[in-house]
Amino acid sequence: MPTRPDHHRQAAPAAPAALAALAKLGALAALSLGVLAGCASTPAEPVPFKPVPAARIVQPGYTEPGAGLVAVDVRRERSRDVIVRFRDALVYIDGEQVTDLMNGEHVVFYLSPGVHRIGVSTQFDPVVEMRFTVTADTRYANRASVTFGDDHRIALRRVAQ
């Protein structure tokens, strides 16, 4: 019978060592999560927008400069969200599909001064349209921004400069 109490005495010193090892492992896991969380909240370095390749322009007439036309820049803002990052955003001018934008791309349209309709959509979203007044007045920016909301729905807004 004396082996039983001795067995407990030998196991007791091992328990604090195991708890210490678990505490170190927990601290290491917390530190790792803290480092990863810190990286996630840091914004990415700004990178210039890439132009849409000519092969993806469906209606090239809107992307060619001409006399009396004003440049309108439509940009697809970068997203780290994996759900929307690889979805293309279809772009419409006055009801006609002209091209699509991928993450971090932009396209320049040359439009006559006046009111036009710029619209965007995805394969999952209905067309979101806005009336866009194109002006040659340099006090105003002719730029629009395509983004995705927290609900992963596409949005379009005019950008002031």
Question: What can you see in these coordinates?
Answer:
This protein has two helices and nine strands. By secondary structure, the protein is of the alpha+beta class. It folds into two domains: 42 residues; 109 residues, Sandwich (Immunoglobulin-like). The strands form two sheets. Strands 1-5-2-8-9 form a five-stranded mixed sheet, with no helix packed on it. A four-stranded antiparallel sheet has the order 4-3-6-7, with no helix packed on it. Strand 3 and strand 4 form a beta hairpin. About 7% of the residues have low confidence.
Summarize the structure.
This protein has 161 residues and is of the alpha+beta class. Helix content is 27%, strand content 33%. It has a 5-stranded mixed β-sheet with strand order 1-5-2-8-9, with no helix packed on it. Strands 4-3-6-7 form a 4-stranded antiparallel β-sheet, with no helix packed on it.
Mean pLDDT, as a whole number? 82
Number of helical stretches of at least 4 residues: 2
The named CATH superfamily of the largest domain: Carboxypeptidase-like, regulatory domain
Secondary-structure element string: HEEHEEEEEEE
Q: What's the SSE blueprint?
A:
Blueprint: H1 3-41, E1 50-51, E2 70-76, H2 82-85, E3 89-93, E4 96-101, E5 105-111, E6 114-121, E7 128-134, E8 143-148, E9 154-158
Throw out a few tags for this protein.
161 residues; alpha+beta; Immunoglobulin-like; 2 domains; five-stranded mixed β-sheet; four-stranded antiparallel β-sheet; 2 helices; 9 strands; 33% strand
